[in-house]
Amino acid sequence: MAIALCELKKGAKATLKCVNNPSLELKMLEFGFVEGTTLTVSGCAPFGDPAIIECTCTKLILRRSETSQIMVEPQL
Predict the structure, then answer these.
(1) Per the omega criterion (within 30 degrees of 0), is the bond before 50 cis?
(2) How far apart are CA 23 and CA 73, in angstroms?
(3) pLDDT for res 21
(4) Can you name the residues that pair with 74 across neighbouring β-strands?
(5) Which residues are registered as beta bridge partners of 55?
(6) Would you say 48 and 65 are in contact if contact means Cβ atoms under 8 Å apart?
(7) Pick from 49, 65, 69, 70: CA 20 to 30 A from residue 22's CA?
(8) Using one digit for the tens of pLDDT, what is the confidence trace for 5-53?
């Protein structure tokens, strides 16, 4: 079941499923965030905005408006 990335808590891992915004999808692809990649929420500012998302050796800081458009499948 896919959920928005913004719903995950710090330390949670998930598999990237899709990005619902073409310009954000391009930004994610440029940094190596492709469908099927494992993402980790490695940190958050107060109130969850912005969040630090990690993929392999890349860290990306995203606003809540961006993480709400990224669909992931949580890992157990």
Answers:
(1) yes
(2) 21
(3) 93
(4) 14
(5) 58
(6) no
(7) 49
(8) 999 999 999 999 999 999 999 988 988 889 999 999 999 888 768 999 9
Could you tell me how many residues make up the chain? Answer: 76
Beta strands of 5-69 (E only): which ranges? 13-19, 38-44, 51-55, 58-62
Pick 3-74's CATH classification: 2.30.30.90, 3.40.50.300, 3.40.50.970, 2.60.120.10.
2.30.30.90
Q: Which residues contact 56 (CB under 8 A, 6 or more apart)?
A: 32, 37
Domain boundaries, the chain: 3-74
- Token reading at 51: 């969040």
* Separation of alpha carbons 39 and 26, rounded Å: 17
